[in-house]
Amino acid sequence: MSLSLENQRPIASDNILAIAVYALYVLGYFTVVTAVIGVIIAHAMVDDADPVTQSHFRFQIRTFWIGLVYNVVGLPLCLVLIGFPILIWWFAWSAVRIVRGGLLILENKPIANPKSWLFGSSSRSKPQAIPCGRRHWRRVRPACPRTRCGRGPSRRACEKSSARW
C-alpha cells in the first residue's frame, strides 16, 4: 500500500529550509561551496513556499547574487587597494542581511522588502491600516502625543488637549 504524493508530509518545513540556507551562507564565508548550495535550495523552494518564507527565499537569492557582484568587483580591485573597502562593505552588508533574516524567520515574520539592495527594510514608513467594515481599509492617523485621542499629532486637531501643550 503506497501513499499518494498529496498525503505525504514534507521532509523539512519551509522555515527549517530557510534557516538552513542562512546557516549555509554563514558557512559560505569559509567555504564558497556552501553558499552555492544555499542559493540552489532557495531557488528550488521559492515558488512552492508560503508567502512569509517566500520573502526569505527571495531575500536569500538577492543576497547571494548581489554579494557575488561585490566580490567580482572587489577582488580584482584589491590590486590597487580600492577593493579592500568594497570587500569590507560586502562582509558587513551580508552579515547584517543574514543575521536580520535569520532573526525574522525565527519569529516567522516576512522580510518587508525582499528586493531591497540594503537590508530588506522598507524605504519609508507606511501608515497603519485597519479594516473599516467595508471593502477597503482605512488609514489610521497617529495618536495625539499628549492625550492619545487619535485625532492626529497637531495641536489644533486635539479637542481634549488643555490650553497649554
Radius of gyration: 23 Å
Strand order of the largest sheet: 1-2
What ranges have pLDDT less than 50 throughout 5 or more consecutive residues? none
The biggest sheet amounts to:
2 strands, antiparallel
Topology order in helix (H) and strand (E) letters: HHHHEE
Task: Work out the count of structural domains.
Answer: 2
Q: How far is it from the N-terminal to the C-terminal residue, by CA? A: 76 Å
What spatial form do the alpha-carbon principal axes imply? elongated
Helix content: 40-55%
Class by alpha and beta content:
mainly alpha
Instruction: Provide the residue-averaged pLDDT.
Output: 77
Number of helices: 4
Residue share in β-strands: under 5%
> How many extended strands?
2
Describe the fold and architecture.
- The chain is mostly helical and 165 residues long.
- The chain folds into two domains: 14-106; 128-165, no CATH class.
- The protein is 48% helix and 4% strand.
- It has helices spanning 14-27, 32-45, 51-77, 83-106; strands spanning 129-131, 137-139.
- The protein has a two-stranded antiparallel ribbon.
- A hairpin with a 5-residue loop joins strand 1 (129-131) and strand 2 (137-139).
- The longest helix is centred in the middle third of the chain and has 27 residues, at 51-77.
- It is elongated.
